Fold this sequence. Notes:
Layout: E1 10-12, E2 17-21, E3 31-37, E4 40-45, H1 51-70, H2 80-94, H3 99-116, H4 126-138, H5 149-169, H6 179-184, H7 198-216, H8 224-243, H9 247-252, E5 258-262, H10 263-269, H11 280-286, E6 287-295, E7 298-304, H12 306-323, H13 342-351, E8 356-359, E9 362-365, H14 369-381, H15 386-392, H16 397-403, H17 410-418
Antiparallel strand pairs: 1-2, 2-3, 3-4, 5-6, 6-7, 8-9
Helix pairs in contact: 2-3, 3-4, 7-8, 8-12, 8-14, 15-16
Amino acid sequence: MGFFRKDSIIKRKEGRLVIGKKERQYNTENYYSRFFVGGKQVSFSSKTTNKKRAIKILEQYYEDYQAKKRLNLIIHSKSVKDCWEEYKQDLKKGTSLSGVTLRGYIQKGQLMIKHIGHLKVDRLTYDDVSELLTRRNSFNQNKTHKLRQATLEGDLRAFSKFDTWLVDKGYKEKKLTGLKKKIIGKNRENTSRLYFKRSEYQKLLSVSRERIKKAEQGGLDGGKKVAFHRKLLHQFIIFGVNTGIRVGGILNLKWEDVQLKDKKQHYFEKGIQKNYGDDFYGKLDRFFTINNVTDKSGHYKNIGLGGSYYAIQEVRKVYQEYYKDKITLKDSDKIFNVKSFSVGFNSLLEEAKLKTVKVGDDWLRRDSVSLRHTYIVFMLENGFTEFSVGKNVNTSGDMIYKHYTKNLLTTDMVEQLTGIGDRKKLRLIS
C-alpha cells in the first residue's frame, strides 16, 4: 500500500519533491509533500485541499528547509517513539493514575508508536492524529466490528495528555486543541448506555434462567460447559446490580476481597436485638457484602446489597457442581475467573430483546456497564442520596446528579415521589 494515491502524485524539483493526497483510508483530502534530507525523510502537510495553493506552500517549505540545511540550522526533532518512552518513565515515577488506568495509557501509547511512532513531534498535525485513529480501526483484531466511539475517544484523551507533556517539555510549541470536535466531528455515534427498568431487569434474569435450562438439556446450544458459563453470567449480573461495582472491578475481585455479612449478628454483637422476616425480602434485608474493590478509579470499599451475598454463595455452588472435587477454591483465586462476559452477555441481551432502545431519534445500547447504571438508578429511586451512592461506587455525588438524577425518566421519578405501588417492589430482585 502506497502513501499517496497514484492519480494525485505531483513531482517537483527534478523529482526530489513528491506531492500528493494520502490514500483514502487516511480520511483527509489535504495535499502532503515528502522529500529526503541527509537520508532522513521529511513529510509536511499543506493543510489545504486546493491543488494550486498546496503546490505553492509545499514548494516554499521545501526551499526554506533546504536553505536552513545549507546554513546548518536544521535540528532533527525527536520522534513520537523516543518521546513516548521518556513520557512513559515520567508517568510511572510521579503518576496519580491508578494501576489499571496507567496500564491503559501505556497500552494506548504502544499502539500510538506502532502507527505514528516514526513521525516528528514538532510537526504533528490534526491529520496525523486522524490517521492514527484510521489505522487503529484498520488494524483492529476483530475485523467484523469497528472500534467503538468510546475507544477512539479514549485514544484521543491519551494523545492529548501526551501532547500536553510534549509542550511542557519544550519538544513542540503548541498543543493540538479541540481534538474530539475536529477529528471525530459533530456526527458522532451515540454511546449512551441505558439502565434496566425493574421490569426489564426481571425479564433479563428470566431469559437468563431459560438459557441455563436449555444448556443443561444439551443439544447444539448446550452442554455442561455452556451451562456452567451461563450460570456464572447469571450471578455476575445479580452481583453487578446489587453492588454497582464497575465491570473491571468485579472481574478483579478475589474470594479474599469479599466478606459475607449478617446484619442480625452484627447488631447482636452490639447488644441490639434485631429481627428479620424469613421471606424473600427479609433475607435480602438481613445479609450484605463488604467488597474490597480495585478498578480504574483506584482502591475502595463497597457495600453490596443482599442480592450480592446470595450471588457469591451461588458462584461457589456453580464451581462445586461443575468441577466436583477436582479443584479447591483458594482465597487468592478470582471469583469469576473469566477475561470477559461480553459475548455471553450481549447474546443474552439480544435474546431478551433488551440490547438497544430507541429514544427520540437515537438508538441507545446496553452492555455490562448498564448493570452499574441500574444499581445507581435503583438506589436513587429507593431514596438514597447522590453522596452516599457515589461514595459506595467510588465517584462523586455531583457526577451521580449530573448523569443519573438529572436524567431519570419522568415516569420513574413520579413513582418515586408519589409512592405509587408496593414499596417492596422498589427493592432489588435476585
